[in-house]
């Protein structure tokens, strides 16, 4: 699959600052680690930043994370680019992550992916023109017994059928952005 | 037969909360350990139980704990591995979602034995909703005095924190996990030093799987000897198996180690048999273990019934056996294509390689490309030997076992299903249809092939 390019410049991207609520959460996260080890909170804080930046990590957002933790920018970039849940370019309002790993494939994930591609008129890795949906193929989400399945934000949608996919898409169209950090 | 130790109270009302958990005997192991036992006595029970790591490698837990270095004045850590990313494995998710307090209880009791005052749960980022469940459970436990300073007046202090990952299979490897917990890329460390000597923040650390730590609860409640009565030989106790693929009843099952493979797959108590068609192959322990054809799952090469134990599943070595692994079981019916499945496995490992070692980084990519072309009708017969060659060059030549884990599924598929690979090279038009074996299953001749 073609690797999609990360946005590596601040040009044309909006400024970023954490909400007061998120800053309080950062403090709570940092307190979990020994005094000189606050960098340990980097992964969860990147999740917070992503949720407050329309689902992706711009350079501005990553720089704000570096500032909160008092670490170098590069320490944030190298981590953000390693993990698959961080999006380094804008994504749709709802990020549909369909598991395509073997146990799901055996239970029909290929068909669900094909169905979604056709329905949304995009390929895996793309975003719909209206910015509503991004479709992504992901690796085993620990839900193989209820395959085929997809993750959208914090929610797992399991035992998918074309009918269930239709209902989910209709429902999501009317919902605000889904994030991993949703309660 | 059929005892349950972890999921016994699975369906009790309110079991997710502290009150319901307590009502079903929860936190007794903490009371017993902290009030009546010494740390060494707890360790002794775990040794007696014969418990082996449930994360995949099956290393004896008591022995691992006894390696923990104890330099004076240096903190020690227990880190629970809740990364659960091995394809086919979803048992830890089930346990943490349904009975979060059993993990917390196990962590307190285990940390007491290890002399760890802080422990962490590292949970994969995709399980964000379970992270919330665990946080709530920890809050409840803290408020009730199971965590904090001087627990039960024993003088033992303990606190637990959860850390979310962000999508990387490699962070299940224990040293990559520790790197990630320190806020870095998940690149595995070179061993030695082992975590028991230099782990989290360079301090002595034990990393254990969720299920391993949960099993400490019944071991302390009933005694190690009682636990060791369940099972066969060195496979003691119960094991959670997550069952998927083409079976009638996918789900998470707690089995007593030692039931037959036949019973596990065919009985209505467990998988309920294969869905619709004939059984073709089985991956018994997660994607990293060798795939075996149906006949070798039911019987060993010596025609003895195969059992769900560490030893029996690996009987015959890689020539005719597989592994229990993490208990991520999945079955294939005869509509499935082994080349397609092997390509899918290879794609997974290529995607998840951390990129530190050339044999793994380059080899996994090449295997994926070659398998792609075979599966899509663009392959050559030489490709099979080429694949064999590449997997051999990865195995044993890398920093962490992900390299081996990528090599074994390819090697075992070629070993047992070589004729299917040859068919792909010689029937390009037929295999272009992605469902090529759905209407007309591949006619395989069952045999016990050797490498
Ligand atoms: C690539 C790779 C991925 C792994 N993933 C996991 C995992 O998701 N969960 C787990 O418990 N162990 C995983 N392990 C095994 C751990 O390295 C480690 O052996 C285990 O957590 C030890 O716990 P145990 O002794 O209780 O099994 C993985 C190992 C490798 C090499
Ligand atoms: S074997 Fe693969 S995953 Fe493991 S350290 Fe080497 S490159 Fe990384
Ligand atoms: S393979 Fe899809 S959830 Fe496990």
CATH fold name of the largest domain in chain A: Glutaredoxin
As a percent range, the share of helical residues of chain B equals: 40-55%
The first-level CATH class name of the largest domain in chain B: Alpha Beta
What's the architecture of the largest domain in chain A, going by CATH?
3-Layer(aba) Sandwich
Q: Nutshell version of this structure?
A:
The complex is a heterodimer of chains A (183) and B (451). Helices cover 38% and strands 10% of the residues of chain A. Chain A has 183 residues and is an alpha+beta fold.
Explain this structure.
The complex is a heterodimer of chains A (183) and B (451). Chain A is α+β, with helices and mostly antiparallel strands. Chain A folds into two domains: 20-82, Orthogonal Bundle (Arc Repressor Mutant, subunit A); 94-174, Glutaredoxin. Chain A is 38% helix and 10% strand. Chain A contains seven helices and four strands. The relative contact order of chain A is 0.13. Chain B folds into three domains: 18-229, NADH-ubiquinone oxidoreductase 51kDa subunit (Rossmann fold); 232-333, Ubiquitin-like (UB roll) (Roll); 338-432, de novo design (two linked rop proteins) (Up-down Bundle), CATH 1.20.1440. Chain B contains 20 helices and eleven strands. In chain B, strand 2, helix 7 (128-143) and strand 3 (159-164) form a beta-alpha-beta unit. In chain B, helix 3 (39-49) packs across helix 6 (100-114), helix 6 (100-114) crosses helix 9 and helix 15 runs antiparallel to helix 16. Bound molecules: flavin mononucleotide, iron/sulfur cluster (SF4) and FE2/S2 (inorganic) cluster. FE2/S2 (inorganic) cluster (FES) binds next to helix 5 of chain A.
């Amino acid at each position: 699959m073609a690797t999609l390019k990360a946005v590596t410049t601040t040009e044309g991207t909006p400024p970023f600052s954490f909400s007061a609520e998120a800053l309080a959460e950062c403090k709570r996260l940092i307190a979990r680690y020994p005094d000189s080890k606050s960098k340990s909170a980097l992964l969860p804080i990147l999740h917070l930043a992503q949720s407050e930046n329309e689902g992706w990590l711009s350079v501005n957002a990553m720089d704000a994370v570096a500032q909160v933790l008092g670490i170098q920018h590069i320490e944030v970039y190298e981590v953000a680019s390693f993990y698959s849940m961080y999006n380094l370019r804008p994504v749709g309002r709802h990020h549909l992550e369909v598991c395509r790993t073997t146990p799901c494939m055996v239970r029909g994930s290929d068909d669900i992916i094909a169905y979604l591609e056709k329905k949304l008129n995009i390929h895996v890795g793309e975003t719909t023109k209206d910015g509503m949906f991004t479709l992504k193929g992901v690796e085993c989400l620990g839900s193989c017994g209820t395959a085929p399945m997809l993750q959208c934000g914090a929610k797992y949608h399991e035992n998918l059928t074309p009918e269930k996919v239709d209902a989910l898409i209709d429902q999501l169209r009317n919902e605000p952005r889904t994030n991993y950090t949703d309660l | 037969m059929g005892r349950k130790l972890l999921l016994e109270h699975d369906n009790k009302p309110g079991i997710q909360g502290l009150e319901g958990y307590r009502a079903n005997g929860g936190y007794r192991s903490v009371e017993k350990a902290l009030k009546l036992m010494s740390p060494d006595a707890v360790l002794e029970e775990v040794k007696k139980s014969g418990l082996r790591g449930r994360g995949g490698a099956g290393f004896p837990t008591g022995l691992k704990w006894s390696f923990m270095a104890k330099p004076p004045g240096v903190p020690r850590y227990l880190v629970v591995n809740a990364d659960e990313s091995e394809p086919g494995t979803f048992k830890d998710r089930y346990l943490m979602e349904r009975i979060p307090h059993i993990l917390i209880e196990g962590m307190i009791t285990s940390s007491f034995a290890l002399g760890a005052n802080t422990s962490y749960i590292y949970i994969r980022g995709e399980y964000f909703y379970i992270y919330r469940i665990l946080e709530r459970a920890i809050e409840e436990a803290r408020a009730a005095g199971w965590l904090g300073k001087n627990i039960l007046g024993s003088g033992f202090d303990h606190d637990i924190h959860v850390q979310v990952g962000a999508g990387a299979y490699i962070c299940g490897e224990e040293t990559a996990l520790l790197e990630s917990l320190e806020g870095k890329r998940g690149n595995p460390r070179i061993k030695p030093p082992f975590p028991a000597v230099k782990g989290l923040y360079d301090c002595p650390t034990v990393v254990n799987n969720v299920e391993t730590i949960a099993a400490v609860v019944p071991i302390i409640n009933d005694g190690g000897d009682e636990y060791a009565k369940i099972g066969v030989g060195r496979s003691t106790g119960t094991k959670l198996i997550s069952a998927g693929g083409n079976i009638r009843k996918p789900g998470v099952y707690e089995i007593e180690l030692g039931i037959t493979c036949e019973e596990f797959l065919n009985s209505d108590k467990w998988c309920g048999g294969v869905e619709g068609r004939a059984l073709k192959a089985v991956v018994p322990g997660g994607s990293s273990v060798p795939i075996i054809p149906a006949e070798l799952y039911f019987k060993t090469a010596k025609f003895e019934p195969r059992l769900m134990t560490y030893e029996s599943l690996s009987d015959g070595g890689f020539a005719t056996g597989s592994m229990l692994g993490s208990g991520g079981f999945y079955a294939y019916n005869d509509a499935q294509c082994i080349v397609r499945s092997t390509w899918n496995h290879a794609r997974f490992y290529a995607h998840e390689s951390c990129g530190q070692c050339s044999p793994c980084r380059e080899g996994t990519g090449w295997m994926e490309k070659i398998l792609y072309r075979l599966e899509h009708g663009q392959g050559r017969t030489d490709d099979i030997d080429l694949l064999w060659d590449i997997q051999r060059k990865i195995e044993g030549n890398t920093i962490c076992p992900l390299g081996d884990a990528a090599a074994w599924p390819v090697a075992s598929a070629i070993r047992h299903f070589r004729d299917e690979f040859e068919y792909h090279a010689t029937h390009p038009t037929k295999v272009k249809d992605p469902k090529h074996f759905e209407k007309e299953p591949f006619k395989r001749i069952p045999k016990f092939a050797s490498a």
